[in-house]
Amino acid sequence: MDFGERLVAASENGAAYDEFEELVAEAFSRLGFDVQWIEGGDDTDVQLTEPVEAIVEVKARGNGQLQSPDASRIRGHQEARGAEYAVVVAPGFMPAAIDDANRDGLVLVSADRLRGLVERNETFGLRPEFVADVLFEPGAFQDDRLDEIDERIADRRAAAGELVSMMDALERGVGAYTAGELRHVLIGMRDGDVPGVARIESSLVLLSHPSLGVVVEGEDGYELTTTAEQGVELLERFGRLIGAKRVA
């Protein structure tokens, strides 16, 4: 079995508490969080410390459903650890458990949906802040939240592709280009819609940011400081913009 299959299988094995806890800790580690697996004792099971402070309670259930998260006990662990968020991971949740989570501000995540997050991270290289923005909303993490993450991934890939197109266009020319001049180059390169001058200007400003330094602005316009290929590598390292496609 691959990692995701092992995670889900352990969640449905009532005798696999330790294995499930360890796999949940590994899942959050794969998502980029700083993780501590806390074994044994009357304490939480997993603690996240960066980029958010959260505790994770792990509940394996042979019947596949958690009836109650025991909110008062979890709140005690959360206060003791000084965590901002409290998350419960189980194979699934009964309606009463979801009601408790909504009332008490807990986050419920099924093992299968946690697997979905890990798989998306392996494919697209999601930053933990990107995941946390949706994951830690109180209540049950259901398919609508995975859909929201998918929409954000699509938007990010489109934006990344646009930045790559800008670098390719600059590389094809000689010297510096204004945003308006670069738009004419893009019209000759692209079959689909070409962004307007304002959006091109915004992309060029981002590429010229000191943290990237892929583009430099001079009196005559913007100019590449490296090759487009090296620029893509810098973008991937800086923003983990995986999946951006080069213009042929």
Task: Reconstruct the topology from this structure.
Blueprint: H1 3-11, H2 17-30, E1 34-37, E2 46-50, E3 54-58, H3 71-81, E4 85-90, H4 95-104, E5 107-110, H5 111-124, H6 128-135, E6 139-141, H7 143-172, H8 179-189, H9 197-207, E7 215-218, E8 221-224, H10 228-239
Parallel strand pairs: 3-4, 4-5, 5-6
Antiparallel strand pairs: 1-2, 2-3, 7-8
Helix pairs in contact: 1-2, 1-5, 2-5, 7-8, 7-10, 8-9
At a glance:
With 248 residues, the protein is an alpha/beta fold. 52% of the residues lie in helices and 14% in strands.
Spell out the key features of this protein.
248 residues; alpha/beta; Arc Repressor Mutant, subunit A; 2 domains; two-stranded antiparallel sheet
Domain module count: 2
- Tell me the major beta sheet: 6 strands, mixed
Work out the helicity level: 40-55%
The CATH topology name of the largest domain reads Restriction Endonuclease
Uncertain residue segments = 240-248
Approximately how much beta-strand content do the residues carry?
5-15%
Output the helix-strand order: HHEEEHEHEHHEHHHEEH
Q: Mind telling me which CATH architecture of the largest domain this is?
A: 3-Layer(aba) Sandwich
Number of alpha- plus pi-helical segments: 10
So what's the CATH class of the largest domain?
Answer: Alpha Beta
Major sheet: order of its strands? Answer: 1-2-3-4-5-6
State the assembly state of the protein chains: single chain
Total beta-strand segments: 8
Summed over residues and divided by their number, the pLDDT gives a mean of 89
Q: What structural class should be given to the helix and strand makeup?
A: alpha/beta
Q: What is the radius of gyration?
A: 23 Å
Shape: elongated
Distance between the termini: 38 Å
